[in-house]
Write a structure and sequence with these properties.
By secondary structure, the protein is of the alpha+beta class. Helix content is 30%, strand content 29%. The chain has a six-stranded mixed β-sheet. A five-stranded antiparallel β-sheet has the order 14-15-16-9-17. A four-stranded antiparallel β-sheet has the order 4-5-21-20. Helix 5 crosses helix 7.
Length: 482
């Protein structure tokens, strides 16, 4: 029996569970894209699959809505692939192991992909229905949203006839998102030279942090393990000379880093002194986080090595300088919208290659000039550490439209259903609507969705009751788009 067979809305959860059995991490979306194409063909619906694996499916309007303006329902097919350190799960071959607990849908030891599989599942349920009144529907399923919004960059929006676009990539019920921050993906490379040395190799691992979405949860000021490792290495270097051998962790620029490992080579007589500094730093973090990072763990392992390849002294200093200096986290709150993050950045990936230590950072701001100011700061930090930096991707902010007809319909529908107004807001996380509007300025976009918490982390969970309510709300909105 399917895990979600008895959950309502049944069709929505049926399609979501089917998707969860198909690996669909970012840049691995051909199989899930083909699944959507087969779904459409099996129902005799018009379908377009482009070279990037984006999928558009069209369904005519129901009786009385045949001549209504089409409505676009949009979500992305890819998911962030994160798992616990001891999980054997292979995101390239394995389906997710779903379970329900305390009214929430979760995946065992991995991300769930509620961001944004639930959007695709809801759109499919509309396409599959024969009892939901609606105007002509165009569903747009994009790929690779989680790393650079590649599908949104690639899609030809002239293929779409509709103007009203409902994006289902928001994660808090009762909030209509009508704007978002713009972003820059920034890569820094610090060149390294190596030499062979003997000594005590200390492996240091910082892990057990909460992590999370670097847009939606950056204001919570959770620990970033990359920045913490830079701070720790700097504290050791102030007292004890050592050579760095490698440092790395993280898989996505938009995930707050929760696991970083470094290896350093020290003289044998310095082992206890180094371990003491590490223990003191761990205790300092416990005090600073005040219980908000309960799983924070710093592990060490020491072994004797000879002829071990490490960075030379200058390279070691440069890498530590960069990791300690580069800005990170919440930078500015909005001066216009109370409590809304305006500007932030997140060092999500650090990796050691043969030639360099490479970092990937996501810079976000709803103010274009602030976004580029942070890019300038990153450039200066890279230069100070003997390295280089470059912009590898950028997407624009989505500006609030005071004259949105779709927003009016969605606000009125919400009031009719619940007797109160929804919250109309802008968010700090990036949404594809900004790119869509850059291609077609006539689009009228609003984003909404059910409650999905701790996205981009192994604690991700989708509230089942919220999914039911959001489904009923979506059906009501479509009925009112006559």
């Amino acid at each position: 029996m399917a895990v979600l067979e008895n959950q309502e809305p049944q069709k929505v959860f049926q399609f979501f569970e089917e998707m969860c059995q198909i690996p669909h991490g970012t840049f691995d979306t051909k199989r899930i894209s083909d699944y959507c194409v087969a779904f459409a063909k099996d129902r005799g619906l018009e379908v377009i699959q482009d070279e990037a694996n984006n999928v558009i499916i069209r369904k005519p309007g129901t009786a009385g809505y045949e001549e209504s303006e089409p409505v676009i329902i949009q979500g992305h097919l890819d998911m962030v692939c994160e798992k616990t350190a001891d999980s054997p799960h292979d995101f390239k071959t394995d389906g997710l192991e779903l379970y329900v607990e305390d009214g929430y849908l979760k995946a065992k030891d991995t991300t769930l992909g509620g961001d944004d599989g639930i959007a695709v599942a809801m759109a499919m349920a509309v396409l599959d229905s024969d009892d939901i009144p609606h105007p002509p529907i165009e569903t747009l399923f994009t790929v690779d949203e989680e790393d650079g919004m590649g599908g949104a960059h690639a899609i030809d929006l002239t293929l779409l006839k509709g103007r009203k676009l409902i994006n289902l990539d928001s994660e808090e019920e009762g909030i209509l998102t009508t704007g978002c921050a713009g972003g820059i993906q920034y890569v820094t490379e610090i060149p390294v030279q190596r030499e062979e040395r003997d000594g005590q190799l200390v492996k240091i691992r910082i892990h057990g942090l909460l992590g999370g979405h670097s847009g939606a949860e950056i204001h919570k000021q959770r620990g970033n393990s990359h920045k913490m490792m830079g701070r720790l290495l700097y504290h050791i270097a102030r007292e004890i000379p050592f050579h760095l051998a490698c440092v790395g962790g993280g898989s996505k620029d938009n995930v707050i880093a929760l696991d970083t490992e470094a290896r350093i080579l020290i003289d044998a007589d310095k082992e206890e002194a180094v371990l003491t500094i590490i223990r003191e730093m761990a205790a300092t973090w416990k005090d600073e986080f005040m219980g908000e990072e309960p799983g924070l763990t710093v592990d060490t392992e020491v072994s004797k090595v000879s002829g071990y390849k490490v960075f030379d002294a200058a390279s070691t200093k440069n890498v530590i300088t960069y990791l300690e200096l580069c800005p990170n986290g919440l930078q500015e709150y909005s001066r216009k919208l109370k409590g809304i993050t305006e500007t932030s950045l997140n060092t999500g990936v650090v990796e050691t290659t043969e030639a360099c230590v490479r970092t990937v950072c996501m810079i976000r701001s709803s103010v274009e000039s602030r976004k580029h100011q942070l890019k300038e700061q990153m450039e200066l930090c890279a230069k100070a550490a003997g390295g280089t930096g470059r912009l590898v991707g950028e997407y624009p902010a989505w500006q609030y439209d005071p004259d949105s007809e779709l927003r009016r319909i969605m606000v009125d529908t919400y009031k009719d259903l619940y007797g109160r107004e929804p919250v109309v807001s802008v968010i700090h996380a990036g949404l594809e609507c900004g790119l869509f509007l850059g291609k077609r300025s006539d689009l009228d976009c609003v984003s909404c969705g059910p409650n999905v918490t701790d996205v981009h982390s192994v604690n991700e969970q989708l509230e089942i009751a919220s999914t039911q309510r959001t489904w009923e709300y979506l059906k009501a909105v479509l009925k009112n788009c006559k």
